[in-house]
Amino acid sequence: MSDPSRSEFGDFLRSRRAKLNPKSVGLPDGRRRRAPGLRREEVAELAGIGVDWYVRLEQGRAVSPSVTTIDALARALRLSKVEHAHLRALASGVNRRAFTRENVPAPLRNLVESLNQPAYITGRRWDLLAWNKAAAEIFAFDRLAEEDRNILVCIFLFPGTRRLFGSSWAEEAKRVVAQFRRSSDLSGLAIRRLSNC
Questions:
Q1: Can you spell out the DSSP letters for the chain?
Q2: Segment-wise mean pLDDT, segments of 10 residues, the chain, 197 residues
Q3: pTM
Q4: Which residue in 144, 105, 114 sits closest to 128, CA to CA?
């Protein structure tokens, strides 16, 4: 794995370990815990790997876990199918070529702008590349700074979007993150800032 991959891999393991408690994985609660979640040694035991090996993985050291190890960690951490696929993608050192914002061909842009219903086009990172007046009226895309024109930024950082979704915002946010993880892993991109969501 490249250095960024190792760091992301370790961050993802830590975030998922913190979400579990001993009782949820069939372990006794035992002594008092300084931090929420399972201990590293508990995850290692559940995955059937050495504690030192697990610590190295979580710390992002230069080790390469096998597919068997990844699958064992996914079971130990009770990962969903999407999370499991994300862990595999991080472990494989997915292709990380330099990113450049995509351009929308003029005919496609004209088509979106001609629609009466809200419509927009996103890129691989879910950057907003084109939208029409109806979408702008609802989401105010045209009032965003260019660097903020991203579906994930809109969902998580702008109070107006929270108000727009109302009481269903939390469910919508979870759905969007799961979709983004899946599409990012499938297209060879990794998630950097959303591992703790």
A1: --HHHHHHHHHHHHHHHHT--GGGGT----S--SSSS--HHHHHHHHTS-HHHHHHHHHT-S----HHHHHHHHHHTT--HHHHHHHHHHHTT---PPP------HHHHHHHHH-SS--EEE-TT-BEEEE-HHHHHHH-GGGS-GGG-BHHHHHHH-HHHHHHHGGGHHHHHHHHHHHHHHHHHHTT---STTTT-
A2: 67 88 70 75 88 87 80 92 88 59 91 95 90 92 88 88 90 88 56 40
A3: 0.48
A4: 144
